[in-house]
Amino acid sequence: MFDLDDTLIDTKGTLLPPALRRTADALGVAVDRLDPSGKTVEQVVSRLPPLAPDRLEAARAAWYDPQLPPLTPLPGARDLLARLRGRVHLVLLTRGAEARQNNKIDATGLRRLFDEVVIRSIDSNGSKRDDLVALMHRFGVPARRCVVVGDDPDDELAHAADLGCRTIRVPEIPLPEIPDRLRAFGLLS
Questions:
Q1: What is the pLDDT of residues 59-71, one digit of tens each?
Q2: Which of the 8 DSSP states describes residue 169?
Q3: Is 88 exposed, middle or buried (0-12, 13-18, 19+ CB in 10 A)?
Q4: Cα-Cα end-to-end distance for the chain
Q5: Contact, 85 vs 124, CB < 8 A?
Q6: Is residue 70 part of a domain?
Q7: Which of 14, 105, 166, 172 is the most buried (most CB within 10 A)?
């Protein structure tokens, strides 16, 4: 299972700055008044005084704008997935605004490299843990044979480790080295 943002594409470097600018412009505030570490619009605007519903909706529309700048996968991502395709079951599990996540996946051309794409809406209840449990159950894969590749030690990697899955944290383990790690786990010959 692969995460998308900052695992396979550079979200923080490519998509975050324009999203912060759009949101600040929509609210008429300076960008430095927003919280760049936020994952949801509510977190991004948390440093501001409480927003009226119409202003929060304007911020939401700007933050989750599905239009994207030119976007490419991180170096090695496409080659890695192509090498693994057909050898392991490849699932992309991501969370965000559904239209925006779909646009990211399609803009990078990564969709065709996965056996399945699961997008958990930013507005839905539950977590990636719930999705991992459901995917392992559906595919009959025990946790010890499931590998989760991601960047967030407090999200997908924590959930995976709690469930007994193996984890690979990007960028500590560069994408081109992942097949070696899978072989070391005994999951790839």
A1: 999 999 988 888 9
A2: E
A3: middle
A4: 18
A5: no
A6: no
A7: 105
